[in-house]
Amino acid sequence: MLKFVKNHMESIEGIATYPMISLLIFFVFFALLFWWVFTTSKEHIKEVSEIPLQDDQPKDNTL
Questions:
Q1: What tens digit of pLDDT does each residue of 29-60 get?
Q2: DSSP letters spanning 1-48
Q3: Is the pTM of this model over 0.85?
């Protein structure tokens, strides 16, 4: 089975570009995420972390 897949993949022209594109996309995504984590203000993080504890909406027990 693996031999069939390997031979089939080798016959496709330009197949080597797809792993490079996916690596670039994931690297850019995680680099931006890393940058956002370290540049976000502590006030914003505190505000977002307290959202689950807020009781602004009435509970609906009809389910």
A1: 999 999 999 999 999 989 989 888 877 766 66
A2: -HHHHHHHHHTSTTTTHHHHHHHHHHHHHHHHHHHHHHHS-HHHHHHH
A3: no
